[in-house]
Amino acid sequence: MTASSRERLQSLGIALASIGGVIIADVGGLLVYANDEVRRLMRRQLSPRLTWERFGADLRLRHSDGNPLPLEQAPLSRALRGETVVDGLLQIANPDGGDLYVSWTASPAKDEKGDVFGAISILRDATERVEAERQQARAAEMLRAANQRLIVSALAAEDTAEREQERRKDVESQQQERGRLLDDVQRLADASDRRAAQLMAVIHNMVDAVFVYDAGGRVSLTNEAGMSLLAMAGSGAAEPALPGFPAGLPARHLDGKPILPEEAPLARALKGEPVEKDDMVIAGPDAGRDVYVRLSAAPIKDESGIVMGAVVVVRDLTEIMELDRLKDQFIVTAAHELKTPVTAIKGYAQLLLKRSQEGVGPQAIKALQAINRQSDRISGLVNDLLDISRLTTGRMEMVTERVNLSELAEEVVDRMALTTTNHHIRVVKAEPVVVKGDKERLGEVLTNLIDNAIKFSPKGGPYQGRIDVAVDIAGDEAVVSVKDYGVGIPKEKQHRIFQSFYRAHAGTPFDFGGIGVGLFISKEIVTRHGGRMWFESEEGKGSTFYFSVPIGKSRRRSRRTDAGAK
After folding, report:
1. What is the pLDDT of residue 403?
2. What are the helix (H) ranges across 17-60?
3. What pLDDT, on a 0 to 100 scale, did the predictor assign at position 435?
4. What CA–CA distance (Å, rounded) separates 344 from 434?
5. Which pLDDT score is estimated for 543?
6. In Å, how far are 29, 439, 493, 520 from 498, measured between CA atoms?
7. CB 510 within 8 A of CB 504
8. How many CB atoms lie within 10 A of CB 122?
9. Are 317 and 294 in contact (CB under 8 A)?
10. d(Cα 220, Cα 212) in Å, to the nearest integer?
C-alpha cells in the first residue's frame, strides 16, 4: 500500500471523526487511524502498528443474540474484501467484563481503478437502544400473557358465587398488571421521544449542514446550517430550493469539470452507495461567488435492506479555501521578494571574498564568510517556501530522465562531505540501478536526509559522527537509506515527523533551527515518483531514513553489465 493511500485513509478518518467512532485499516489489515471515540467505546488503548486481526480478536465479537462472530465475518473484515456492511448490530466484550452493543457500518476504500486499498468503519454505541428494545419486548410479552390469562379465566369461570368472586379478583389483579405494563410502555415511549428530541437538537445545532431525503429525493429535514448554505449558494429563498439540492444548483469538481447527475452524492446514496469526503464547488445564479463544500452521504435502509432515503452532510470549506489561497499567495510573494536582495547580498560577498588579496583584513574576511553562509541559509529557506507553494498548488514540475541512483548517491555524498569536518560520510553499499525520475529533485531528497543526519549527529563518541548511505534493490524498488548514530527522535513525536512546519526537536538542546519543511517536501517528491518514504529511530541511538523509487526489469542494471562497462 502506498503512503498516499494511507494518507487518504487517515484524511477520511479525520473528516468522519465527528460522526462517531472511526476505525480505518489499510488493505494489509494495519490500523492506520482510530479516533478518541473508539478508545472511549472500546475502553482500550491502541498501540502503534496494531493490526485488525489482533485488535478484532481482543474484542471477542458476538452477534446481537450472543453467538460468537468469527473475525472474518466482522464488518471491517468484510469491507477489506470489498463488501459494504450497514448498521450491523454486534456485541463487544469490554475489559471490565461488561458487554457493549455497537451499530457497526463498514465500507471499502477503493482507488480510481476500483481496487480496494483499505476499509473505513463507523461505530456508534447502541447499548441504550438494545436495552430499550428488550424492555419493550418484555412489556409486550407480559401484556400478551395477561391477555391470555384473562381468556383462560373467562372460559373457566363457573356460576358459583365463590368462583365468581375469585374470578373478579383475578380480573382486578390482571387489570392492575395491565395498567403497570401500560405505564412501562408509556415510559419507554417518553424516553424514545426525549432521545428523538435530543437528536433533533444536535442536528439543528450542528455547524455542518444536514439534509435528510426520502426515497424520491425530496428533502424531509434540514437544519439551520443547511438553510444558510442554500442562501449563501445563491438559491434565493432557501425553502423552494430544498427539493433539488444539490442537483438544483450548478455543481462542479474542484478541477472545474461539471458533476453529472448520476455522480451526485445524493443520487449515489439513494442507490445504496455511501459517499465520503466528496469535495465540489456549488454556485447559484445569484451567488456572485463560488462556494466550496465537502459532502458525505449515506443511504437510509429499513430492516430488510431497502433504501428508504438518504442523509447528506455538507461542510462549507469556502473560508478555508480562501485562507489557503491567500496563504499560498503570501508565501510566493514573500519568497520572490526575499530572493532578489539575498542574491545581491551573496553576490557582493563573494566578489569581496575573491578580492581578499587587495588588503581586506582577517576580521572583514570572517564577516564576509558569515554573510555568504547566512545568505545560503536564507536562499535555502526561500527555496523551501517556494517548493511548499508549488506542492500545495500542484505546480511542482518533474523532469523525467534516466537516473543512476548509485552515481547520484556518490555525487551527493562527495558534495556534502565538503560541508563538515566533524563527520565521516560514506557510501557503504551501492547497488547499480537506474530509475526514471527527476535527478535534481531526487538529489534534493538525498541532500536533505544527509543534512539532517549531520545536524542531529554527535561530533564525537564511539562513531565519531559517522553517516552511512546505501543504495539497494528490494523487489521492484530501488531503496536509498541514510543512517546516522545521533540523537534520534522521541517515540511520541515520530508520528508527526513528515508533517509540514513540524520540528521534533523544537525547544530542546538539539534545536538547530529551520522551518520544518524538509522532510515534508522530500516525502512529497518521492511520492510523486511513485515511491514511498519511511524511517526507523530510537532516541539516543540515531535514525535511519529510507526512500524508494519503483524500477522495472528493463531499468535494472546487472552487476555483469556494470563490470563490463568499467
Report:
1. 93
2. 36-42, 52-59
3. 93
4. 39
5. 92
6. 23, 22, 10, 5
7. no
8. 26
9. yes
10. 6
User: In which residue are the cell numbers 447499548 written?
Assistant: 127
Query: What's the grid cell of residue 254?
Result: 474542484
Q: How far is CA 285 from CA 71, 239, 241, 417, in A?
A: 52, 16, 12, 62
Cell numbers of 246, please?
A: 444539490
3-state helix, strand, coil in the chain (%, to 5): 45, 25, 30
* Range 41-51 burial, b when 16+ CB lie within 10 A, else e: bbebeeeeebe
Residue 468 has pLDDT above 90, yes or no: yes
pTM above 0.70, yes or no: no
Number of other residues whose CB lies within 10 A of the CB of residue 362: 8
Q: What is the mean pLDDT of residues 272-278?
A: 85
Q: How far apart are CA 99 and CA 128, in angstroms?
A: 12
- Give the neighbor-by-neighbor strand order of the sheet with 99-110: 31-34, 21-26, 116-125, 99-110, 85-93, 62-63
Q: Alpha carbon of 510 to those of 27, 168, 457, 486: distances in Å?
A: 38, 90, 10, 10
Measure the CA–CA gap between 286 and 235, rounded to whole angstroms: 7
> What is the distance between the alpha carbons of residues 209 and 203, in angstroms, rounded to a whole number?
9
Residue 126 CA: distances (Å) to CA of 110, 134, 417 = 28, 12, 62
Amino acid at 212: V
Number of residues written out for the chain:
566
Report helix, strand or coil for 534: strand
Query: pLDDT band at 443, cuts 50/70/90?
Result: very high
* Residues 6+ positions from 251 with CB-CB distance below 8 Å: 258, 259, 264, 280, 281, 282
